[in-house]
Each structure stands twice: as structure tokens, then as C-alpha cells.
Design a protein that fits this description.
about 300 residues, alpha/beta, 7-stranded mixed β-sheet, 4-stranded parallel β-sheet, 10 helices, 11 strands, about 15% strand
Length: about 300
């Protein structure tokens, strides 16, 4: 038997059914941006059902109740704007693909766990494609962090061409499409690695020194004009210019100070690439541009302040 319950928000409706010793949320219809699943509708809510919040495009944050015991397959799949999930610190059974295509998910907030652990937990499914690491009770523990870094390094060291032939042979993309183009594929693969490297360096919980150095090396190696000629995959794929670090920063994090400050801190901005980067920044990210100008003055040396402002 299915039941419908309205919340205090107009036209916000939960559909539920009897499940085990409580209720399961079957679906949700509404316009709430910050959605809290209630603990009780006559009986406790123990399950978020399969595809329960599938394609809820407006939802940015979901808070699960203390009574929750299960989250079904694809429960949050295709929630394009989802940024955060708040879950209780308890043993919960999670289905498959629960965050499929939730590319903006940044935090899985678990009671009693530090914010960095929540960021790494989210990245386990959005960046690393490692659902086996989605274990909220263990996130942040030493062994869990070692497993996370092992998966990250495996991904980072993998040849950029890996998976391309299989994709083409299996027809996973339409023939002749942009996604089928090798150069595009390689660029996207390196962008993903850059996102992972940025993310881990900004969440350094348990990060070992040699791993940190490898991540910094990767970001420098994929910034044109950084002066870094090494890199774990430099030259493997025959690319003349690798600039994915700057591409990701400019297109995705131009307003995030922690990102552009890290970019300069690890030596990606140099005298050789400063003019090009400043001109490409334009007027779209004024605070980042101001930071780069300040960084040059303090660390690279100034030639003409007004000339740089014209770039």
C-alpha cells in the first residue's frame, strides 16, 4: 500500500510504502532546494527506495534521518545540482549507482567525521569511481585513507589512452562524435586526473609527503610554461601542449580562492606563462586576476604594473 504525505512546503509530496518495520520513501515531488527526509510518517522512515530522488534537478542538499537503514539503487542518480548529503553515523546499506551523474557532489557529511573526510568520501564516487570506498563509518580512518590514496595513484598513473580502444570498439559513443575523438578523450582523461590531484591537495588529511609531491608534480607537468619537464605521463600520448591544470582552474574554479592560491603555491604560475594566463583570465575572474598580479609582484618580479593590467 502506497501513501502520500505533504510537507510544510507547498506542492512538496512524499510517496511512501510499508517496508519491513517502517516505511520506505518511494518518490518525492517538490521544489525544495534543501531537502530533509522526515524521520516519521506515522512509522519511522527506514529506507530511501530505488530511484526515489531520481533526476530531482533542483535539490542541492539532502539530509537523511537517524532512522534510515537502507538507500536503494540510483536513489540520487542524475541530481545535477546536488552538492551535499548529510547522513547519520551508523551502518547503512547502500545500493548501486546511488550518485550516478551527480558531478557537483562535494560533501557527504557524516556526524562526528571531519569535513575533509566528507569531501574525500564524496570524491570516492564522483572522481575515483570507487563505490567500495563509500563507507561512511570508516571514512577518515588510516586504513581507509590508504585505500583512497592507492586508488587515486592507480588512476593517476594509468596511461591516458587506457580505455579508449574499448570505448570505440564497444560503440559506447557515436562514431564521429567529439567524444570519439582521441585528442578530446585524452584531454578529458587528464582533466579528471587534475581534478583529483587538486581535490586531494586541498584535503590533506593523512596525505603522505611523497604522495603530495607526486600530485604537485602532476599539476605542474600539465601547466604549459611551468618549466616542469618531468611528469608521470609526459610524452606518452604525443601531446605537444598539456595545459589541463589551467583549463580546469579557469573553467571550473576561477572564483575559488583555495584553488588559485594552490595553483601559485605549488609553482604552476611562472614568468614564462604569466602573461598568457593573465590575458586568458580577462575580466571573468577579477579576484583571481588580482591574486596573480600580487603573486607576481611578490614572487616573480614586476616590470610594468599598468602594462599587466591591460592584459
Amino acid at each position: 500500500m502506497k501513501m502520500e504525505y505533504c510537507t510544510d512546503v507547498k506542492e512538496s509530496v512524499f510517496t511512501l510504502k510499508e517496508y519491513k518495520k517502517g516505511l520506505e520513501v518511494v518518490s518525492y515531488e517538490g521544489e525544495e532546494i534543501y531537502l530533509t527526509i522526515p524521520e516519521n510518517f506515522e512509522k519511522p522512515v527506514v529506507s530511501l527506495g530505488k530511484k526515489a530522488l531520481l533526476s530531482c534537478k533542483q535539490v542541492r542538499r539532502v539530509s537523511l534521518p537517524e532512522t534510515i537503514e537502507e538507500v536503494g539503487d540510483w536513489a540520487f542518480a542524475y541530481c545535477d545540482e546536488l552538492r551535499e548529503i548529510r547522513i547519520p553515523a551508523k551502518n547503512i546499506r547502500f545500493g548501486k549507482g546511488i550518485f550516478r551523474e551527480c558531478g557537483k557532489l562535494r560533501f557527504v557529511t557524516v556526524e562526528g567525521k571531519p569535513k575533509e573526510a566528507g569531501a574525500l568520501l564524496a570524491a570516492a564516487v564522483t572522481l575515483l569511481d570507487a563505490p567500495y570506498l563509500f563507507t561512511p563509518q570508516r571514512c577518515g580512518d588510516d586504513d581507509w585513507l590508504k585505500q583512497w590514496d592507492a586508488r587515486m595513484l592507480q588512476m593517476l598513473r594509468e596511461a591516458d589512452r587506457e580505455g579508449y580502444s574499448k570505448m570505440v570498439l564497444c560503440g559506447e559513443e557515436d562514431y564521429g562524435s567529439r567524444e570519439n575523438n582521441l585528442d578530446y578523450y585524452l584531454n578529458q582523461k587528464r582533466r579528471t586526473k587534475v581534478r583529483v590531484a587538486f581535490m586531494r591537495l586541498l584535503n590533506r588529511m593523512g596525505l603522505q609527503g611523497e604522495v603530495r609531491e607526486e600530485l604537485e608534480d602532476y599539476l605542474r607537468a600539465h601547466t604549459e610554461g611551468s618549466g616542469y619537464a618531468g611528469g608521470m605521463s609526459a610524452g606518452k600520448d604525443g601531446a605537444d601542449i598539456w595545459d589541463e591544470t589551467w583549463q580546469v582552474l579557469l573553467e571550473e574554479h576561477g572564483e575559488d580562492s583555495e584553488y588559485y592560491k594552490l595553483f601559485t603555491e605549488i609553482g604552476c604560475l611562472t614568468e614564462d606563462n604569466f602573461d598568457r594566463i593573465l590575458s586568458q583570465t580577462g575580466e571573468s575572474c577579477p579576484e583571481m586576476k588580482a591574486w596573480f598580479l600580487k603573486y607576481k609582484e611578490e614572487n616573480i618580479g614586476y616590470k610594468d604594473f599598468f602594462e599587466d593590467l591591460m592584459l
